[in-house]
Design a protein that fits this description.
254 residues, SH3 type barrels, 29% helix, five-stranded antiparallel β-sheet, 11 strands, single chain, three-stranded antiparallel β-sheet, GMP Synthetase, Chain A, domain 3, 8 helices, alpha+beta, elongated
């Protein structure tokens, strides 16, 4: 374990591994914090005691929440290493008046107390867990900022629109839907769209499916037979314009 410099002073941290060099950028990757030194044996004992204090504070705060009948769910308790402040993270559907709760917590722990409301994504990030892929949650391992995720990203990648398939433990759309979204959009550019009629040589085909990563399309001819066209083949084809049906003008009675 090492001691790092934060906005509120020195805090202990686990040194997991040495970060590999970033191969996709010419700029050197800078750390988001500064490692000061290794922990002393006394500081290691203080840290172990600090973890136990956070667990006890969580239990005490949960009891006080029930006492005041507040509609909120306590997620996590964080106590600064120097003991100057405690942060209680919670989730709630509506605005909560926790002034009396804060008074009781200050009287109990004799330190500064902050109640901080977080969303369901941040709650999952704090609690951690395993995703449907079997790996540790991205938000709990490396994601620092949550990007907006939309159902359009799942459609672009031809994923099933079943909520149970594209939602995470937080019951929100998977963060990983953003990882390959730009790649799929870039690969689809120039490809014949699904439902369009194309002409290759003297034959006419109907586009059934796109395979963006393989840069190929699945088409069917007039006999209903399917065929796979690779990039060098569909680039030579001609996309036929579909004729729009002519709308009949309504006669206005005079």
């Amino acid at each position: 374990m090492v001691m790092i410099k934060t906005d509120h002073g020195l805090e202990p941290a686990h040194l997991v591994d040495v970060a590999p060099p970033c191969m996709c950028s010419e700029r050197p990757r800078l750390a988001s914090f500064e490692v000061v030194r290794e922990l002393t044996e006394e500081e290691k004992d203080r840290y172990a005691h600090l973890v136990e204090q956070e667990k006890q504070a969580h239990a005490i705060c949960a009891t006080l929440i029930g006492k005041h009948e507040l509609e909120m769910r306590l997620v996590r308790v964080e106590k600064f290493f120097n003991g100057s402040k405690m942060i209680f993270y919670f989730t709630a559907d509506n605005r909560v008046d926790f002034r009396n709760l804060v008074k009781d917590l200050v009287q109990e722990f004799r330190t500064r107390v902050e109640m901080r409301q977080v969303g369901v994504r941040h709650e999952t990030k704090m609690l951690g867990g395993l995703g449907t892929c079997g790996r540790e949650l991205c938000c709990a391992s490396f994601i620092k900022k949550f990007d907006s995720v939309s159902i359009k990203m799942a459609k672009e990648q031809d994923l099933p629109l079943n909520p149970s398939k594209i939602s995470g433990l937080c019951n929100r759309l998977l963060c990983c839907l953003t990882y390959e979204y730009d790649t799929y959009r870039r690969q689809r550019k120039g490809m014949p769209k699904v439902g369009k009629k194309i002409k290759l040589g003297e034959e006419y085909f109907l586009v059934r499916r796109q395979n963006p990563l393989q840069e190929s399309i699945v088409v069917s001819n007039e006999k209903g037979e399917d065929a796979l066209l690779h990039k060098e083949q569909w680039q030579e084809c001609e996309t036929l314009k579909t004729e729009r049906p002519v709308r009949k003008e309504k006669k206005v009675k005079e």
